[in-house]
Amino acid sequence: MIASKPPRANSNMQKTKYVITRIIGNELPPRDRQGSRLGALKFIVENEYVASDASRLWLLNRVLDSSLLSELKQILDLAGERYVEESVDWKVYIAAFSRNARLTALININKARNRCFEEGRQLADFVMVLDGDCFFDKQAWIKSTNFIVNDQLTNVDRKYYAHSSHRLILDSPLPVDQGKMKLEEPMLVFRADADRLFDESLPFGIGDKQELLSQLGLRRVGESWLQPELDSLAALGGFVLHLQTGSSEVESDFRVRIRVRNESLNILLKKADRLAELELLRGKQWWTLFKFKLCRCLAELLAAPKKIKQMVKRLIGRRK
């Protein structure tokens, strides 16, 4: 499925028909294997099929680990890739109380997606907003872009498309029968004049993308996505490939992936709390630091009953 040698991306970023945009965020163990995000980026940069009418743009989204951020930038710089960066607003994070508010301040994946569109619409007629570990091989690219071109001939007002996402359950992205791949949440494509975007108030992992997919007429039924109405705003066709960043168990089981992802987010939040405290210490903001720690203690106390119930439920389940 992978082209022998894909064309290089358009290095000067002149306006093209398509721009592939991607969001690269924090590595989240145990959801991600150590080094998997860097590995996925290297693979995509070196192997993705980028046609002559396409370009690429990357968004580095609030990466907390300075060494990881430096390595990501080095890979992109050496490849002559264009990228933009979002940083954490620590004032917003420190003021956030609930877990969802903290995650929104720390990740805000929908704000990153919207920025990809806003930057991308200046560069191309169609903006593909992909997750950081999704890519096109030649077959996927041809099928996806042909679908858009053919649909535009008869649906000249269409501004939205969705490509199926096929998750590779492998230790390396080798050729695989497309029918045996896990079908995941679609990736959206926006025409440059699109006016419906992602809701930036939604926290990461709680229907952040599904809300817009639903608006556009795409809904989930079991493990499949379909377009139920003839007048849907988005047309579903074509596909992208989704690289593996976690263990095979995590990648192949949606329920396991959700559970492990929540554990990973809790670890990320603890790391962010430590960084926020350092920010306050450096600024000698003693009163704000005291309030910040007090709020975190209160949040832990409020969450304790729910955690106890979950522990009891797990214990009962094991005895059965």
CATH class of the largest domain: Alpha Beta
Could you please say which CATH topology of the largest domain applies here?
A: Spore Coat Polysaccharide Biosynthesis Protein SpsA, Chain A
* Lateral arrangement of strands in the main beta sheet: 3-2-1-4-7-6-10-5
**Main sheet specs:** 8 strands, mixed
Total domains, how many? 2
**How big a fraction of the residues is strand?**
15-25%
* Mean of all residue-level pLDDT scores: 83
In angstroms, what is the radius of gyration?
Answer: 21 Å
- Helical segment count: 10
Tell me the distance between the termini: 45 Å
What class would the helix/strand composition place it in? alpha/beta
Unreliable sequence segments? 1-11, 172-181
CATH architecture of the largest domain: Alpha-Beta Complex
Number of beta-strand segments? 10
Helix content: 40-55%
* Shape label: globular
H/E element string? EHEHEHHHEEHEEHEEEHHH
